[in-house]
Amino acid sequence: MGESRSSTEGRPLQGQRESLPSSQDGRRVVPQGMLLETKQCSERDCPPDACRVPEVPRMVYPKAQLLQPARADVLVMTPWFAPVIWDGVFDSAILDAQFENTTVGLTIFAIKNEVGGELDGPQAVTLSRMVYPQPKVLTPSRKDVLVLTPWLAPIVWEGTFNIDILNEQFRLWNTTIRLTVFAIKKYVAFLELFLQTAEKHFMVGHRVTCYVFTDRPGDVPRVPLGEGRQVGVLEVRSYSRRQDVSVHRVEMIRNFSRRRFLHEVDSPVCADVDVRFRDHVGVEILSPLFGTLHPGFYGAAREAFTYERRPQSQAHVPRDEVDFYYAGGFFGGSVAEALRLTSACHQATVVDRAHGIEAVWHDESHLNRYLLDHKPTKVLSPEYLWDEQLLGWPAVMKKLRYVTVPKSHRGIRD
């Protein structure tokens, strides 16, 4: 979401652009509502969602150790990301909090004779017949890392999933993926490599529209695209400070989500532009709400996490209230959940600014507060956002899928 550390009707296609209104003096401006509207996402804005991510109360519990599997003797997650429930793989306190307002129905059958007839009801998705290796219940997919959070969300590493099964599921669901990227000011220089590598590695075989938010639409490169893949250019204003770009990014995503994306896509993915796709990034990442572990903190103690620590900020996270530290450079989910997330983060920044506060890592700080309160339904390992120049290539990383591009921070930010 911000700059990380370390049918076609109504849709702008590559070579077209959507411009924002002009002021009386002819300058491009963002509509007033985009900057000043501060209401939270309502149920009208966020349509009913059976997979809505619940908010959990603030609580203290042991931090999950990413490099220490909860169970190294059994399989705890199937190749299609269904948790295999064993003692020791979940935290009942977190799950109880998530399902606090849920009504559970227990159905008991006590039938002496067979009853004829069929029952109407929702039909399960039927996969094509496939041949693949049998999962071994007593053989973990990975023995060196945590593959399931205490709230039973998959942590995605190489070796934990079968992409053929997942691809078949998503093709049957007829999903369209939206890839959102911001290229403001000099960051437009990274667009060509980003788009080229996305075409090669991102969601290959699936329908993808990449929306480029930029203040320099004339500088957006034309990249050859495959069938079912498009680039839309959305012109937005620039800001003098890079921090302001970061702060207003969630606001712009929220507003365009309300105007367009609710009707055009199923699965939005928000990414940084100064990064390139290096290996396969596919439907294994998709979920109602996903975040990516920050490469600089995946093995660190909670005390080292650079959360916003000032209680006056809406992004404040106490030192004993910790899950993981998520990167702002790669996140997403369903359209409804992405709208809730961006609305909440925007509202939080508005409150902070009214009190003269700017969170330490801007939108990333607010993202971490939100994902602590609304546990992601899938967590991506640092394979999905890595800085090889600073961190090398440790053995635990079987693949580096999405990596930062070497650059001069001072030169690109000036």
Q: State mean pLDDT (0 to 100 scale).
A: 82
Structural class: alpha/beta
Could you state the order of secondary-structure elements as H and E?
EHHEHEHEEHEEEEHHEHEH
CATH classification, class level of the domain at 17-47 and 162-413: Alpha Beta
Name of the CATH homologous superfamily of the domain at 17-47 and 162-413: Spore Coat Polysaccharide Biosynthesis Protein SpsA, Chain A
Overall geometry: globular
Task: Describe, in plain words, how this protein is organized in 3D.
The chain is α/β, with parallel strands linked by helices and 414 residues long. It has a domain at 17-47 and 162-413: Spore Coat Polysaccharide Biosynthesis Protein SpsA, Chain A (Alpha-Beta Complex). The protein has helices spanning 32-36, 92-98, 163-172, 191-201, 242-264, 335-354, 363-373, 388-391, 409-413; strands spanning 17-18, 155-156, 176-183, 207-214, 229-235, 267-271, 275-277, 289-293, 326-333, 378-380, 402-404. Strand 3 (176-183), helix 4 and strand 4 form a beta-alpha-beta unit. Helix 5 runs antiparallel to helix 6. The radius of gyration is 22 Å and the shape is globular. The protein starts with 16 loop residues before the first strand and ends with a helix.
Salient structural properties:
414 residues; alpha/beta; Spore Coat Polysaccharide Biosynthesis Protein SpsA, Chain A; 9 helices; hexosyltransferase activity; glycosyltransferase; transmembrane helix
